[in-house]
What we know:
The structure holds 2 protein chains of 2 kinds.
Chain A lengths: L18 H8 L4 E5 L5 E2 L14 E5 L3 E10 L6 E8 L4 E7 L11 E7 L7 E6 L1
Parallel strand pairs in A: 6-8
Antiparallel strand pairs in A: 1-2, 1-3, 4-5, 4-7, 5-6, 7-8
Chain B lengths: L7 E7 L10 H16 L8 E3 L9 H8 L5 E3 L7 H14 L5 E8 L32 H16 L3 H15 L13 H5 L3 E3 L2 E2 L9 E8 L1 H5 L6 E11 L13 H12 L8 E4 L4 H10 L8 H5 L18 H5 L7 H13 L13 E9 L5 E10 L1
Parallel strand pairs in B: 2-3, 2-4, 9-10
Antiparallel strand pairs in B: 1-7, 1-8, 4-7, 5-6, 8-11, 10-11
Helix pairs in contact in B: 5-9
Amino acid sequence: xxxxxxxxxxxxxxxxxxxxxxxxxxxxxxxxxxxxxxxxxxxxxxxxxxxxxxxxxxxxxxxxxxxxxxxxxxxxxxxxxxxxxxxxxxxxxxxxxxxxxxxxxxxxxxxxxxxxxxxxxxxxxxxxxxx
Amino acid sequence: xxxxxxxxxxxxxxxxxxxxxxxxxxxxxxxxxxxxxxxxxxxxxxxxxxxxxxxxxxxxxxxxxxxxxxxxxxxxxxxxxxxxxxxxxxxxxxxxxxxxxxxxxxxxxxxxxxxxxxxxxxxxxxxxxxxxxxxxxxxxxxxxxxxxxxxxxxxxxxxxxxxxxxxxxxxxxxxxxxxxxxxxxxxxxxxxxxxxxxxxxxxxxxxxxxxxxxxxxxxxxxxxxxxxxxxxxxxxxxxxxxxxxxxxxxxxxxxxxxxxxxxxxxxxxxxxxxxxxxxxxxxxxxxxxxxxxxxxxxxxxxxxxxxxxxxxxxxxxxxxxxxxxxxxxxxxxxxxxxxxxxxxxxxxxxxxxxxxxxxxxxxxxxxxxxxxxxxxxxxxxxxxxxxxx
Lengths: 131, 389
């Protein structure tokens, strides 16, 4: 058993295009961009839909639930951590960390739920706990 | 328009250094260029097309043309990471076929060891303006743990094992023992690989390529120029390039851009995977090779683990010898960009100039493939098919 420990998280650079995402994160909400022209959700969030090119994209609140698509425990790091792609219920996958868990117990397909972790001088970032 | 047989590779050079404490970056580029031009029997004054990528110092093509005193009528600084130089050969062939230049020079160089760069294990950040950075960098994406996620998913979907991946390193080490310049010349076993320390699950230390300084260069010319030179000419038959990315979050880590670059190159060359006698496959990690071989059609999707097992990739043993210089896994990975040396070893094979212990008999058709960037996020894929002319 290798318990995940907190490690220093660098602050995400925030710009005008993505500020709503980070403002929501500070309020404990995970947002996903959705295109009102083609209906597709995408991540990371963009002003313009990467599927159809439309600028008619809007922020929607995600359920915060998903499953582990893939992961890797970086054992060589000073504080080992698990990088992962989590597939959200909304159908998009996002890079993240799996936290507050036994790193040796992570499996592809596990259910996870979002949690926000503080960063070094920036907004909190969405990570996931195994449920 | 096709580039088939419209451009030849006339000169290649792999810089002999593996740690360049005494040379500048520009100097390494120029030494590599001089080596390839000497191999071809040409001079700097003959060059009228120049190709380089993100490893070149300063303003890239401008800075290096200035440093080397080149008089250019064609310049191309396409940057797709370690695959750039494989793409450059295709672009050089296009430019030559279109009459835009006669003698194209491609250079690569870097000093990650001399500079103490934590190549694979420190999170990479391409600057805060990169649109992905805020959504990736906080999570500690390193080169190793990203490729590891691709390996983990491949294992999950297809039952690929660490022992199967290890066969790729075993084959590279069997070749590297014959290369006096290889950084790692010790022959290793499957057991050695799977018992080496885990860096990022499921990749072990011996699943990872080496970190080396150095460089390399390639000279591509019009066919009539190459035929007038002393070296055995190698014709470019076909080239394909592609960019694979995250597709807006529709992540699928089980394949690479080789699923597009490969068929494009085979179609242009008019040959099939079964015709290829030798392959140079970008080997940043063992998993890179396995997935690429599947995507290029050398075996069915998901069967890569079975395909590489039991020595398929070992020269003199298996039916598809690969990376006979020892590749990035054992020989050399200059500037953390392995595409150029992939072309160099393929040319050696086609000329019959590989080490006798690893030379493929009657090697008249070879493929080189580059992968640049990250399998887990965004990468360039480049496939090049060459023929002994």
